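Title: Request for sanity check on Inositol polyphosphate phosphatase like 1 prediction

Description:
We are preparing a figure and want to confirm that the structure record we downloaded matches what your pipeline produces today. Could someone re-run it with the sequence below and paste the raw structure tokens into this thread? We only need the token string, no images.
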Amino acid sequence: FDQQSSPMVSKILQQTATQSGEQELESLVLKLSVLKDFLSSIEKKALKVLQEMSSATPAPPAQPLSRKAKSIPVQTFEVKLDVTLGDLTKIGKSQKYTLSVDVEGGKLVVLKKQKDSQEDWNTFTHDKIRQLIKSQRVQNKLGIVFEKEKDKTQRKDFIFVSARKREAFCQLLQLMKNKHSHQDEPDMISIFIGTWNMGSVPPPKSITSWFTSKGLGKTLDEVTVSIPHDIYVFGTQENSMGDKEWVDFLRAVLKDFTEIEYRPVAMQSLWNIKVVVLVKPEHENRISHVSTSSVKTGIANTLGRRRGVRLGVRPCVARRTWRAGDRRWGPATPRGDRPPPPWGQATPRGDRPPELSPRAAGCTDDIMTSDHSPVFGSFEVGVTSQFVSKKGLSKSSDQAYIEFESIEAIVKTASRTKFFIEFYSTCLEEFKKSFENDSQSSDNINFLKVQWSSRQLPTLKPILSEIEYLQDQHLLLTVKSLDGYESYGECVIALKSMIGSTAQQFLTYLAHRGEETGNIRGSMKVRV
């Protein structure tokens, strides 16, 4: 590496032979110093050579940059405005609109075509679209709630070309919200359900023990008592307070305890029987399809002692409808002079599936204004939000199929008429109907066994074909008579366990208006 350094080292070695002992030591130190500098010089030159060799070597091909997320183009949908007959007489004919969804820009443009090629359009950003309400009766109808001004909304109902187009539009709007909104979608909500016969006496100032599930029976843990529920449902009997007065009272006691202004979703009353539903403000626009009803009995169906009210709500796409009210045997609340009944009977619950087992179920022991104690139940319920495909909008060539190999039903009837099955689901564009059963038999005069082979059963086509979507879908089957189109029983089948290339068995009971009317079994598969 250094040709000049070699003679210098040789010269030092020659001088060593003629030097004395002290001089040898000094010479040794000098030699070590020279060698150190020499080795340092070699190291620097070696490093320089390696760097030059490295720069001369051609660089390896650059790794391709990670693909940028593909932007979603603006999608347009041709729709018609759904109007009432009264509005139709004013505007003359149904109005055509174009809905343009800009996912990347986070906005929806609503364009109305007018005469003389003029256009009237409005742009709504993602935060101004408050709610999407899918019609349960018309599969291609969608209600959109827009925020026009602060705390003022406007709803418009649109008719899409098909249920598939409606679902694609909803997917895009949900995707837009996921992309631009920082608000999380809940997958579980907590619900308090309570019922109380107030004995025509005003309530005490504090009813905290009721809506915190304190008292007898299965109560909440002390740690979770202070956590507010998402939804509160209060059912009362012999309630002498006015409707508005009662709602204001409930909202006030909840605000004192939770510091949250709960919003009233629905109120239904029949004389002194009342049902009230209150929700957190952030869930108000997630509630849809509120339905209420009442039943009068007695003299002229008016003056009887026994009455009932029903109220159902649908939070997001909740897997349950809750009811509370006065039943045939009177209020389901324990009286003060009797031992409390089993909590499963005391809590308004209907026929709940196992996953809806209450976190708390019991009655209070400190509210004494009535001879009945308030009854409480606390539940956690799973909800699903709008499905968004991970693969983008599905292609028309992608199609899943729901196929039945056979169905056998045993129905409670002395009739020997023919039967058919109707198939309903939110994943279908429209309901489908089977042909009449091809065989039937009876071993008991009060029951009839009816059977359908694959030739009599329709092949169903879901509007979306992704497994993640189909896993959350269900079918409602209704067995009807051919002569009177009367339903002899209904059942629900989950598609989750039916997905695959091999047919799976199902067996469940049939029920009609709360009464078990038979059972149904069969073989089916969901082919994706």
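Thanks, this matches our download. Residues 21-56 form the longest helix (36 residues).
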